[in-house]
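Title: Request for sanity check on LuxR family transcriptional regulator prediction

Description:
We are preparing a figure and want to confirm that the structure record we downloaded matches what your pipeline produces today. Could someone re-run it with the sequence below and paste the raw structure tokens into this thread? We only need the token string, no images.
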Amino acid sequence: MLALVRALIDPLQREFDHRISSSHLQEAQSLLTRMEHATGLEPEDAAIVVTMLATTDRIAGRPEVGLARLGALESVRPSPADRAPVHFHVGLMHLELGKATMALESFDAARSEAYASGDDNLVALAEELSLIASYVQLTSQSPAWTGARRSPLTGSSLPLGAALDTVDVRELRHLLEAPADYSAPGMTALSSLEATLRARAYSVLGLGHSALGELDILAAKLPPGLPTPALRRWLLLSRVEALLVLGRADEVLEILDDATPSGPETPHATLHRAHALVLLGQGDMATTLMHDLVPQIRGKSVRHAIRAQATLHRALLGLGDVEGANAALVDALHKAAQTGLLLPFFRHGRAWVAQLLDAAVPFTRDPAVGRLVRSMHETLRDLGGAPDAIALTPREQDVLALLAGPGTIGQVAEALGVTQNTIKSQLRGLYRKLGAASRDDALLTARAAGLLT
């Protein structure tokens, strides 16, 4: 009977909801109602029946009714196999109701659960619907977009997002080879989404200045009246990611303070704030933020959960709480091993990831964690770049060689017979070439690229 219902209402078989006839919809509802009240229905079948009933509600133009059904189903904690489709259908309901942000959270949860259970089809569907929800979210923020001519989706955002999730360095570099064209008339939300994804890719590759440049190009092409306050905050969060890579934590906090509207901060902004506080040595404040955030995001976004625990690990380690830091690290590693998500770790920069992998060694007895750690080591090697990818001047080579020693900036300047300000200026250029935010990061990149022995 379930197979018959699927044949009647499954949008994948019917292509689009509007091609489902009213007679088929009524027949499906009748069958599902009979099954819902049948005795002896197995729990997994009951979950499927409720999900299908919610689908018929959505097709019939009653998404709020379907959402209530699924909310009741979620409250009884369905089995792991059912959680992904339930989250996915909740996302569809929110999308129908115009609640794009809530839809994004649901699709993110669906993708994570589907990835963990090996349902590649649902992973792909959740990723595509997340893109649509992002489009709806941004277009709803500005009247200027509603009447603007929209160019078709190029398709580059989906592979870029997938490569970011797993930090596929070769694919990211390939996708960034061709510059994006933001000059087409009628700026679209999808163009903004692509620009921020490209900026994030540059940040992950350690090229914070390139990330800022990408966002500047986008800002220059926005039509009059944009960005709106809501969109401005969204773009500023993307800029914050690049500034974190560059180690400019003070600027990050200033931007977050200015951009935060009245009311609670978004999880994304809170994670950025905690990251900045850690960079400034204020681990106690970062720890408090993460302890408050973790219960709020539990079960909603595995990306946020991994990043929160990774940030908590870093903060607690700086405070000398090794036991607490290890507990947070283990939780983050297990979640990442289940989902394949590496991006939350690499937001902290390659130098810190190298330290994290050293701390993870005792936990690699778990085969899944061991595979994850090996994968992260491979990613670190890929991020180092080829030896001929970075060309340094003779003076930069001298500075780099002295930087690898124990000397301070003052001692390096004295050895080269120049002022400290001159060395600082040369270091900025050197860091920019290496895509580094700190001395440790620069040395790690230089060694990986064969510039130091």
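Thanks, this matches our download. The chain has four domains: 2-140, 151-246, 276-383, 387-448.
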